[in-house]
Amino acid sequence: MKILFAGTSDFSVPFLEALHAHYNIKAVLTLPDRQRGRRRRPRPTPVKEKAVTLGLDVWQPEKLDALHETIKAHDIDLLITVAYGKKVPSPMLEAPRKAPVNVHASLLPALRGAAPITRAVEYGYETTGVSIMHMVDRMDAGPVYASSEVSLACDETKGTLSEKLIRAGTALLVETLPRIASGEIEPEPQTEGEATYAPKVGKEEARLSFDMAATKIHRKIRAFNPSPGAFTTLDGRKLKVFSASPLETRSDATPGTVVHVDKHHAVVKAKVGALSLKRVQLESKKAMDITSFLNGAGRTLLKEGIRLE
Hints:
Layout: E1 2-7, H1 13-22, E2 24-29, E3 34-36, E4 41-43, H2 46-53, E5 58-59, H3 67-73, E6 78-82, H4 90-93, E7 99-104, H5 116-122, E8 127-134, E9 144-151, H6 158-182, H7 214-223, E10 230-234, E11 237-247, E12 258-261, E13 266-269, E14 274-282, E15 288-289, H8 290-295, H9 298-301
Parallel strand pairs: 1-2, 1-6, 2-5, 6-7
Antiparallel strand pairs: 3-4, 7-8, 8-9, 10-11, 11-14, 12-13, 13-14, 14-15
Protein backbone atom coordinates (compact mmCIF):
# COMPACT_ATOMS: atom_id res chain seq x y z
CA MET A 1 0.00 0.00 0.00
CA LYS A 2 1.72 3.18 -1.22
CA ILE A 3 0.88 6.35 0.69
CA LEU A 4 1.39 10.01 -0.11
CA PHE A 5 1.24 11.92 3.19
CA ALA A 6 0.36 15.62 3.08
CA GLY A 7 0.89 17.71 6.21
CA THR A 8 2.63 20.83 7.43
CA SER A 9 2.19 21.73 11.10
CA ASP A 10 3.45 20.30 14.39
CA PHE A 11 0.06 18.61 14.75
CA SER A 12 0.75 16.62 11.56
CA VAL A 13 4.10 15.20 12.66
CA PRO A 14 2.90 12.40 15.01
CA PHE A 15 0.57 11.16 12.27
CA LEU A 16 3.49 10.92 9.84
CA GLU A 17 5.52 9.03 12.45
CA ALA A 18 2.67 6.61 13.18
CA LEU A 19 2.10 5.88 9.48
CA HIS A 20 5.82 5.46 8.82
CA ALA A 21 5.99 2.83 11.58
CA HIS A 22 3.28 0.72 9.94
CA TYR A 23 3.02 1.51 6.24
CA ASN A 24 4.94 2.40 3.09
CA ILE A 25 5.20 6.19 2.78
CA LYS A 26 6.10 6.81 -0.85
CA ALA A 27 6.54 10.57 -0.38
CA VAL A 28 5.63 13.48 1.87
CA LEU A 29 3.87 16.57 0.56
CA THR A 30 4.27 19.78 2.58
CA LEU A 31 4.21 23.53 2.03
CA PRO A 32 7.32 25.25 0.65
CA ASP A 33 9.93 26.64 3.03
CA ARG A 34 8.96 30.12 4.24
CA GLN A 35 10.93 33.00 5.73
CA ARG A 36 10.53 33.01 9.50
CA GLY A 37 12.14 34.55 12.54
CA ARG A 38 13.86 37.89 12.99
CA ARG A 39 16.43 37.19 10.30
CA ARG A 40 13.75 36.10 7.82
CA ARG A 41 15.64 33.01 6.76
CA PRO A 42 13.84 30.20 4.91
CA ARG A 43 12.69 27.57 7.39
CA PRO A 44 11.34 24.08 6.62
CA THR A 45 7.94 23.04 7.92
CA PRO A 46 7.85 20.70 10.95
CA VAL A 47 6.67 17.91 8.66
CA LYS A 48 9.59 18.41 6.27
CA GLU A 49 12.06 18.30 9.16
CA LYS A 50 10.61 15.02 10.38
CA ALA A 51 10.39 13.53 6.88
CA VAL A 52 14.06 14.27 6.25
CA THR A 53 15.08 12.54 9.49
CA LEU A 54 13.00 9.52 8.43
CA GLY A 55 14.72 9.44 5.04
CA LEU A 56 11.51 10.13 3.10
CA ASP A 57 11.16 11.88 -0.24
CA VAL A 58 9.71 15.40 0.22
CA TRP A 59 7.55 17.26 -2.33
CA GLN A 60 7.07 21.03 -1.91
CA PRO A 61 5.34 22.44 -5.00
CA GLU A 62 4.10 26.03 -4.86
CA LYS A 63 1.10 24.97 -6.96
CA LEU A 64 -0.76 21.68 -7.01
CA ASP A 65 -2.14 22.00 -10.55
CA ALA A 66 -0.13 19.13 -12.07
CA LEU A 67 0.48 16.99 -9.01
CA HIS A 68 -2.28 14.54 -9.94
CA GLU A 69 -0.10 13.30 -12.80
CA THR A 70 2.78 12.69 -10.40
CA ILE A 71 0.50 10.78 -8.04
CA LYS A 72 -0.65 8.52 -10.87
CA ALA A 73 2.91 7.98 -12.08
CA HIS A 74 3.91 6.76 -8.61
CA ASP A 75 0.89 4.44 -8.31
CA ILE A 76 -0.19 6.05 -5.04
CA ASP A 77 -2.93 4.05 -3.30
CA LEU A 78 -3.88 6.52 -0.58
CA LEU A 79 -3.49 10.26 -0.22
CA ILE A 80 -3.64 11.13 3.48
CA THR A 81 -3.82 14.76 4.57
CA VAL A 82 -3.43 16.04 8.12
CA ALA A 83 -3.37 19.83 8.59
CA TYR A 84 -1.72 20.35 5.21
CA GLY A 85 -2.82 23.98 5.00
CA LYS A 86 -3.90 24.21 1.38
CA LYS A 87 -7.03 23.15 -0.49
CA VAL A 88 -6.46 20.01 -2.56
CA PRO A 89 -7.82 20.38 -6.14
CA SER A 90 -10.33 17.90 -7.55
CA PRO A 91 -7.96 16.19 -10.05
CA MET A 92 -5.61 15.41 -7.18
CA LEU A 93 -8.44 13.90 -5.12
CA GLU A 94 -9.24 11.54 -7.98
CA ALA A 95 -5.62 10.50 -8.60
CA PRO A 96 -5.00 7.90 -5.81
CA ARG A 97 -5.89 4.32 -6.75
CA LYS A 98 -8.01 3.75 -3.64
CA ALA A 99 -8.97 6.94 -1.76
CA PRO A 100 -8.07 10.46 -0.65
CA VAL A 101 -8.33 10.54 3.16
CA ASN A 102 -8.31 13.46 5.58
CA VAL A 103 -7.86 13.49 9.35
CA HIS A 104 -9.94 16.33 10.82
CA ALA A 105 -9.73 17.38 14.48
CA SER A 106 -13.44 17.40 15.26
CA LEU A 107 -16.49 15.16 15.24
CA LEU A 108 -17.79 16.06 11.81
CA PRO A 109 -20.04 17.74 10.82
CA ALA A 110 -19.23 19.83 13.90
CA LEU A 111 -16.45 22.41 13.62
CA ARG A 112 -15.64 22.21 9.93
CA GLY A 113 -12.87 24.59 9.00
CA ALA A 114 -9.33 25.66 9.79
CA ALA A 115 -9.34 25.97 13.60
CA PRO A 116 -11.43 23.17 15.16
CA ILE A 117 -9.19 22.72 18.22
CA THR A 118 -9.08 26.42 19.11
CA ARG A 119 -12.81 26.83 18.59
CA ALA A 120 -13.76 23.74 20.61
CA VAL A 121 -12.09 25.31 23.65
CA GLU A 122 -13.25 28.86 22.90
CA TYR A 123 -16.88 27.84 22.34
CA GLY A 124 -17.01 25.82 25.54
CA TYR A 125 -17.45 22.34 24.04
CA GLU A 126 -17.55 19.51 26.57
CA THR A 127 -16.62 16.90 23.96
CA THR A 128 -14.98 16.92 20.55
CA GLY A 129 -12.91 14.35 18.69
CA VAL A 130 -11.20 13.34 15.47
CA SER A 131 -12.74 12.12 12.21
CA ILE A 132 -11.27 10.08 9.35
CA MET A 133 -12.98 11.45 6.24
CA HIS A 134 -13.10 10.66 2.52
CA MET A 135 -12.09 13.93 0.89
CA VAL A 136 -14.38 15.71 -1.56
CA ASP A 137 -14.11 19.04 -3.32
CA ARG A 138 -16.06 20.86 -0.56
CA MET A 139 -14.02 21.64 2.53
CA ASP A 140 -14.55 19.07 5.33
CA ALA A 141 -17.86 17.93 3.79
CA GLY A 142 -16.93 14.39 2.75
CA PRO A 143 -18.39 11.19 4.21
CA VAL A 144 -16.80 9.87 7.40
CA TYR A 145 -15.12 6.45 7.74
CA ALA A 146 -14.61 6.55 11.50
CA SER A 147 -14.42 8.92 14.46
CA SER A 148 -13.16 8.95 18.03
CA GLU A 149 -14.54 11.15 20.81
CA VAL A 150 -12.53 12.92 23.52
CA SER A 151 -13.71 14.93 26.54
CA LEU A 152 -12.51 18.42 27.44
CA ALA A 153 -11.39 19.15 31.00
CA CYS A 154 -12.53 22.35 32.70
CA ASP A 155 -9.01 23.77 32.33
CA GLU A 156 -8.40 22.42 28.81
CA THR A 157 -6.14 24.46 26.56
CA LYS A 158 -5.50 24.30 22.85
CA GLY A 159 -2.20 22.61 23.65
CA THR A 160 -3.56 19.91 25.95
CA LEU A 161 -6.52 19.21 23.66
CA SER A 162 -4.16 18.87 20.68
CA GLU A 163 -2.25 16.17 22.57
CA LYS A 164 -5.48 14.27 23.31
CA LEU A 165 -6.59 14.46 19.69
CA ILE A 166 -3.19 13.33 18.41
CA ARG A 167 -3.31 10.23 20.62
CA ALA A 168 -6.86 9.40 19.57
CA GLY A 169 -6.30 10.30 15.91
CA THR A 170 -3.08 8.39 15.29
CA ALA A 171 -4.53 5.21 16.81
CA LEU A 172 -7.73 5.57 14.81
CA LEU A 173 -5.90 6.24 11.54
CA VAL A 174 -3.54 3.28 11.83
CA GLU A 175 -6.45 1.01 12.71
CA THR A 176 -8.78 2.28 9.99
CA LEU A 177 -6.49 2.49 6.95
CA PRO A 178 -6.38 -1.23 6.07
CA ARG A 179 -10.18 -1.37 6.18
CA ILE A 180 -10.42 1.68 3.92
CA ALA A 181 -7.92 0.25 1.44
CA SER A 182 -9.69 -3.12 1.32
CA GLY A 183 -13.14 -1.58 0.93
CA GLU A 184 -14.28 -3.21 4.17
CA ILE A 185 -15.87 0.02 5.41
CA GLU A 186 -17.95 2.55 3.50
CA PRO A 187 -17.92 6.15 4.68
CA GLU A 188 -21.15 7.57 6.11
CA PRO A 189 -22.46 10.89 4.68
CA GLN A 190 -22.45 13.87 7.02
CA THR A 191 -25.74 15.49 8.06
CA GLU A 192 -25.51 18.92 6.44
CA GLY A 193 -28.13 20.48 8.70
CA GLU A 194 -25.95 19.77 11.76
CA ALA A 195 -22.78 21.40 10.39
CA THR A 196 -21.01 24.04 12.48
CA TYR A 197 -17.86 25.93 11.59
CA ALA A 198 -14.44 26.74 13.03
CA PRO A 199 -13.08 29.72 11.08
CA LYS A 200 -9.39 30.53 10.76
CA VAL A 201 -7.96 32.61 13.60
CA GLY A 202 -7.46 36.26 12.62
CA LYS A 203 -4.33 38.24 13.55
CA GLU A 204 -6.10 40.52 16.05
CA GLU A 205 -8.49 37.90 17.36
CA ALA A 206 -6.22 36.99 20.25
CA ARG A 207 -6.59 40.48 21.73
CA LEU A 208 -8.62 40.27 24.93
CA SER A 209 -11.70 42.39 25.52
CA PHE A 210 -12.70 42.63 29.16
CA ASP A 211 -16.13 43.88 28.16
CA MET A 212 -17.55 40.35 28.46
CA ALA A 213 -18.07 37.71 31.15
CA ALA A 214 -14.93 36.44 32.91
CA THR A 215 -15.88 32.85 32.06
CA LYS A 216 -15.88 33.68 28.34
CA ILE A 217 -12.53 35.47 28.58
CA HIS A 218 -11.16 32.46 30.46
CA ARG A 219 -12.15 30.16 27.58
CA LYS A 220 -10.49 32.48 25.08
CA ILE A 221 -7.25 32.55 27.04
CA ARG A 222 -7.18 28.74 27.10
CA ALA A 223 -8.12 28.52 23.42
CA PHE A 224 -5.07 30.59 22.43
CA ASN A 225 -2.62 28.80 24.72
CA PRO A 226 0.13 28.12 23.74
CA SER A 227 -0.23 29.94 20.43
CA PRO A 228 -0.67 32.64 19.40
CA GLY A 229 -1.27 33.64 23.04
CA ALA A 230 -4.19 35.83 24.15
CA PHE A 231 -2.97 39.33 24.92
CA THR A 232 -3.82 42.74 26.30
CA THR A 233 -1.83 45.97 26.66
CA LEU A 234 -0.03 47.08 29.81
CA ASP A 235 1.73 50.46 29.85
CA GLY A 236 1.80 50.46 26.03
CA ARG A 237 3.41 47.00 25.84
CA LYS A 238 1.84 43.71 24.82
CA LEU A 239 1.07 41.46 27.77
CA LYS A 240 0.24 37.87 26.85
CA VAL A 241 -1.99 35.97 29.26
CA PHE A 242 -1.53 32.19 29.18
CA SER A 243 -3.48 31.29 32.29
CA ALA A 244 -6.11 32.90 34.53
CA SER A 245 -8.95 31.95 36.86
CA PRO A 246 -12.46 33.46 36.73
CA LEU A 247 -13.75 34.93 39.99
CA GLU A 248 -16.93 36.47 41.30
CA THR A 249 -16.67 40.11 42.36
CA ARG A 250 -18.90 42.90 43.66
CA SER A 251 -16.70 45.60 42.19
CA ASP A 252 -18.40 48.12 39.89
CA ALA A 253 -15.11 49.17 38.29
CA THR A 254 -14.83 49.63 34.54
CA PRO A 255 -14.02 46.35 32.73
CA GLY A 256 -10.26 45.99 32.28
CA THR A 257 -9.45 47.75 35.55
CA VAL A 258 -7.00 46.08 37.92
CA VAL A 259 -9.02 45.88 41.15
CA HIS A 260 -6.62 43.97 43.40
CA VAL A 261 -2.86 43.34 43.56
CA ASP A 262 -0.78 41.66 46.25
CA LYS A 263 2.43 39.59 46.22
CA HIS A 264 0.77 36.59 44.57
CA HIS A 265 -2.35 37.90 42.81
CA ALA A 266 -3.46 40.40 40.17
CA VAL A 267 -7.22 40.62 39.59
CA VAL A 268 -8.79 42.33 36.58
CA LYS A 269 -12.45 43.33 36.39
CA ALA A 270 -14.54 41.88 33.56
CA LYS A 271 -18.03 42.89 32.50
CA VAL A 272 -19.32 40.04 34.62
CA GLY A 273 -16.98 38.78 37.32
CA ALA A 274 -13.19 39.15 37.30
CA LEU A 275 -10.03 37.30 36.30
CA SER A 276 -7.09 36.43 38.51
CA LEU A 277 -4.02 36.35 36.25
CA LYS A 278 -1.86 33.24 36.70
CA ARG A 279 0.78 33.14 33.94
CA VAL A 280 1.78 36.09 31.76
CA GLN A 281 4.46 37.30 29.40
CA LEU A 282 5.38 40.94 28.97
CA GLU A 283 6.64 41.97 25.55
CA SER A 284 10.38 41.13 25.12
CA LYS A 285 10.34 39.10 28.36
CA LYS A 286 9.94 35.42 29.21
CA ALA A 287 6.63 33.88 30.25
CA MET A 288 6.35 33.53 34.04
CA ASP A 289 3.88 32.89 36.85
CA ILE A 290 2.18 35.96 38.29
CA THR A 291 4.18 35.87 41.54
CA SER A 292 7.48 36.04 39.63
CA PHE A 293 6.08 38.77 37.39
CA LEU A 294 4.98 40.90 40.34
CA ASN A 295 8.42 40.47 41.92
CA GLY A 296 10.06 41.67 38.70
CA ALA A 297 8.93 43.89 35.84
CA GLY A 298 5.30 43.86 36.96
CA ARG A 299 6.05 45.38 40.36
CA THR A 300 5.90 48.93 39.04
CA LEU A 301 3.57 48.32 36.11
CA LEU A 302 0.66 46.26 37.38
CA LYS A 303 -1.05 48.32 40.08
CA GLU A 304 -4.59 48.73 41.36
CA GLY A 305 -6.60 51.26 39.37
CA ILE A 306 -4.81 50.95 36.01
CA ARG A 307 -6.65 49.59 32.97
CA LEU A 308 -5.62 46.81 30.62
CA GLU A 309 -6.78 47.44 27.06
